[in-house]
Amino acid sequence: MTDPNATNQAGGGSGEITPQRGTDQSSDNKPQLLAVVRLLLIAAVLGLVAAFAAVVFTIVVHEVEHLLWSDLPDAAGWREPPWWYVLAVPVLGALVVALALRLPGNGGHSPLQGLSPNPMTPLTLLSLLLAALATLSFGMVLGPEAPLLAIGLTCGLVAARAMKAGPEETRVISLAGAFAALSTIFGGPLPSSLLLFEMVAAAGLVPSVKLGRILVPGLVAAGFGALLFTGVANWPGVSSSPFSLPPLPGYPTVRIVDIAWCVPIAVVSGLAVILSRRFAFVVAEAAKRNQSAILVGAGFLIGLLAVVFRAITDQPVDLVLFSGQSALPELIALSSAGVLVLLVVVKALAYGLSIGAGFRGGLVFPATFLGIGVGILASLLIPGLELTPAVITGLAAGSAASLRAPFFGALFAALLGGSAAAAAIPLGLLGAVIGWLTALALTSGEASEAKGDEA
Predict the structure, then answer these.
(1) Helix (H, G, I), strand (E, B) or coil at 317
(2) Which of 121, 160, 154 is nearest to 39 (CA)?
(3) Between the CA of residue 297 and those of 144, 183, 204, what are the distances in Å?
(4) Per-10-residue mean pLDDT for the chain, 455 residues long?
(5) Residue 232: beta bridge partners?
(6) Which of 31, 121, 226, 366 is most buried (most C-beta within 10 Å)?
(7) Please, what sign has the CA dihedral across residues 32, 34, 37, 39?
(8) Residue 186, strand partner residues
(9) How far is CA 31 from CA 35, 37, 160, 217, 416, in A?
């Protein structure tokens, strides 16, 4: 007869082998669990450090901008900066950027390549921050997300090297710093986290089966970083400048006609963003021959566009200059279709000049500004179309087209719209997808062009 213990000893019965196997698996999982907990603790501390560094940079940018565009004109007794001053300040900024691009690191990578998920050395980061400070404070049309992303990635890289982490752990820690830094400007950790999820997945930096596990520390870092600028209990937190919309009119329900108008609004918003980038490649081609001259020339033209816009419309130059992050109340308040058409055109031209000439900054905020401008214009020209659905659609389409990130575009629009625009969220989803498709249709081969221009 067969020994009844033989099956158990072979591993096929229900004796002592099965409990023993479970005990072995539990023991095997303990080191992995401890490693994950260790990473999460590191991410929590890193989130505070990276968010603080990001906030410090944004404060410096704001202070320099305020000095150049408010304090000095006020001290001179000007009601508004004179035309020659609006021309001179961007040119001076271009000279500073030209200097930064000659430093070790060459000011980091060009915005023609979008946002880079790769960490920089501290020396390269310094040249990028100098170029970005001159870009953002002196009036060029790019956003702060690129330098903030670089700050977060580099904070993570420094932390990983101090811990003597391996290659995969270094990647995880660097990305965690990026999550925290970007959360300071995108209105909290959710939009920034989703943007980085899309970036990392699209770049193929992490195998898909490991994507969630590797990026979880980033979510923790973003959450702890958010505590720094939102505050805890009686602590008010550190001042930051998140991108936010002024209150929009209530929108109770989606109408069929709004869905129909959503399509052309999203297409035009995507076109405005992508045509600006196509123009940027033309400028970048010219910059290959003499980068410094093109930078100075582009700075002059950006100032000139602002001066001409003010002379024609009697609107402030701030609507043309800068990323548009702080000019949204003035934009939403515009009620002239002619002014909006001119603004979208000159803003798109200044955006393309800023990208192609070699200034350093991010693509999202000017693209979002253009999308919102297209939405407001549509609400003025199309009878019966309300402001809120048009703005949410344009915002989502412009954001999605800027980085070809439809999930980020949809979430960004939903969060910025607030409770008044809750019913317009389906239009934001549709707008993000259409803006993304428009970008894909018009940017085939753009990646290879960007690599060639960077080289």
Answers:
(1) helix
(2) 160
(3) 22, 34, 37
(4) 47 45 54 74 87 89 94 93 96 96 86 82 89 96 92 90 82 85 78 78 66 76 76 52 75 89 95 95 92 95 97 95 90 94 97 96 94 96 92 94 90 82 88 94 64 50
(5) 235
(6) 366
(7) negative
(8) none
(9) 6, 10, 19, 17, 42
Q: What is the pTM of this model?
A: 0.86
Contacts of 161 (CB under 8 A, 6+ apart): 170
Sign of torsion over alpha carbons 206, 210, 211, 216: negative
The Cα-based distances of 34 to 46, 47, 165, 317 in angstroms read 18, 20, 15, 55
Residues 6+ apart with CB under 8 A from 5: 15
**CA angle, 398 as apex, 365 and 258 as ends, to 5°?**
135
Cβ pair 399, 229 in contact under 8 A:
no
Tally of CB atoms within 10 A around 96: 18
Q: Which two tokens stand for residue 294?
A: 């093109």
Q: From CA 236, how far away is CA 185, in angstroms rounded?
A: 17
Please answer whether residues 400 and 432 qualify as being in contact, where contact means their C-beta atoms are separated by less than 8 angstroms: yes
Distance CA 148, CA 430 (A): 29
Task: Tell me phi and psi for residue 235, to 5 degrees.
Answer: -85, 120
CA distances from 71 to 3, 55, 67, 78 (A): 94, 22, 5, 10
CA angle 159, 233, 149 (to 5 degrees): 30
* Beta strand extents in 222-274 (DSSP E only): none
How many whole angstroms separate alpha carbon 447 and alpha carbon 455?
Answer: 12
Q: How far apart, in whole angstroms, are the C-alpha atoms of residue 316 and residue 326?
A: 13
Q: Collect all residues with Cβ–Cβ distance below 8 Å to 317 and sequence separation of at least 6.
A: 80, 81, 86, 139, 306, 307, 309, 310
How far is the C-alpha of 91 from the C-alpha of 350, rounded, in Å? 13
Report how far residue 419's alpha carbon sits from residue 434's, in angstroms, rounded to the nearest whole number: 24
- For residues 132 and 125, what is the distance between their CA atoms, to the nearest angstrom? 10
What Å distances lie between residue 33 and 28, 39, 213, CA to CA? 9, 10, 12
Q: Which residues contact 318 (CB under 8 A, 6 or more apart)?
A: 69, 326, 327, 330
**Token digits for 108?**
């980091």
- Rounded to whole angstroms, the Cα distance separating 347 from 308 reads 12
Residue 268 CA to residue 274 CA, distance in Å, equals 10
Q: How far apart are CA 33 and CA 39, in angstroms?
A: 10
The CA distances from residue 47 to 77, 129, 174, 177, in Å, are 43, 20, 11, 6
CA 235 to chain centre: 28
**Tokens 């196997």 — which residue?**
21
